[in-house]
Write a structure and sequence with these properties.
355 residues; alpha/beta; Rossmann fold; 7-stranded parallel β-sheet; two-stranded parallel sheet
């Protein structure tokens, strides 16, 4: 039977890598967004507003996916609004698809805020979970839009009879422009500014993150897990963590990132140096760098997301993720974290996004 994928958020870090993975393995693939991009060859764009049932009904009139991949979300000012908006987007989409009776499986991408709490109560002392983080750990007793999204998937699955999978990555490392959570590109931009201005590549985060163990998720490896879970019997109706599979300490990785750019690495010095502060006055600096090096994106804010990088690197605990459940179920793909960053930096340079 033909496999027809609908990716919500196909222009993002995860969605674009997923689209390439699906297309490379023979899937018919649609990418839904309010303003869909057409930079992935073979991806069929679908323009729709997830907050408008009428828009979805019209846009999906001739699309009957067998598999739905939810990789997008919308940031709002409060968690209550995050719940209303992001839960509503999932509910609207699955309701629009229900009359087609075509959907066999729905995959939802959330993240480690499932364990650490949402933005307005993120990783606060007194409510920190034990690590490594495991899928069987219970929900936190606080509002979280990830829980609302999950509940919408569960309710639609009970109504329509499809299977589901939940995927919980750590920080995503991959290429995308305009993404709200983009540590790899943010660090690449910061290192490039440091090189151009002679500033040290100063560690911006906490002592716990500098010395503690951590992991990240390459966008290519979550794409592979999403495709695996879409058809694997062992992945039906399960939640899975997804990270590269190795652990590292930032105190080990930071000098290696600095060396790639040829800049001086400065480690934790007893003070947190938030990137929002470090980059606050650099919009004109970056525009000048972009002009001199003929870069594709001169707007610093379209490339860097320092607020989210600060959130991750400023946590008061080390954070690493257990992959045992996924391994037992049959997903054994591995990715070197050091090379996740180096591959990204090389791609950013090839795409003329950094000098």
């Amino acid at each position: 039977m033909d496999k027809i994928a609908l990716i919500v958020g196909a222009s993002g870090i995860i969605g674009s890598n997923l689209a390439r993975e699906l297309l490379a393995t023979g899937w018919t693939t649609y990418g839904l967004a309010r303003n869909p991009k057409t930079d992935v060859p073979g991806l069929q764009p679908v323009a729709a507003d997830l907050l408008s049932p009428e828009s979805l009904h019209t846009a999906l009139a001739h699309v009957a996916p067998t598999h739905v991949f939810l990789t997008s979300w919308m940031r709002n000012d409060t968690e209550a609004e995050n719940i209303r908006v992001n839960g509503g987007m999932v509910r609207n989409l699955l309701a629009a698809l229900a009359p087609k009776h075509s959907v066999q499986h729905v995959a939802l991408v959330t993240g480690l805020k499932h364990y650490l709490g949402p933005f307005d109560s993120y990783a606060r002392a007194g409510s920190l979970p034990p690590t490594p983080l495991r899928e069987e750990q219970p929900r936190l007793p606080i509002e979280n839009f990830y829980y609302a999204q999950e509940d919408e998937v569960y309710a639609a699955a009970a109504r329509d009879g499809f299977t589901w999978s939940i995927h919980r990555p750590h920080t995503i490392i991959g290429q995308a422009v305009g993404n709200l959570m983009n540590m790899g590109t943010t660090l690449a931009v910061y290192a490039s500014i440091c090189k151009e201005t002679g500033r040290p590549f100063q560690w911006p985060g906490s002592e716990a993150q500098w010395h503690g163990l951590s992991d990240v998720t390459d966008a290519r490896i979550i794409a592979k897990q999403l495709v695996w879970a879409a058809t694997a019997e062992t992945a039906r109706n399960e939640a899975f963590n997804i990270v590269n599979g190795d652990y590292f300490r930032w105190s080990w990785l930071w000098p290696r990132l600095a060396a790639w750019f040829g800049v001086e690495a400065a480690g934790f010095d007893g003070t947190v140096h938030p990137l929002e502060t470090e980059l606050a006055g650099d919009a004109d600096v970056w525009r000048d760098i972009a002009t001199r090096h003929q870069l594709a994106v001169p707007d610093l804010n379209k490339l860097a997301s320092p607020w989210h990088t600060d959130l991750d690197l400023g946590r008061p605990i080390e954070v690493m993720t257990d992959m045992s459940k996924s391994r037992r179920a049959g997903f054994t793909t591995f990715q070197s974290t050091e090379h996740s960053f180096f591959d990204l930096f090389a791609q950013l340079r090839t795409d003329r996004l950094i000098p």
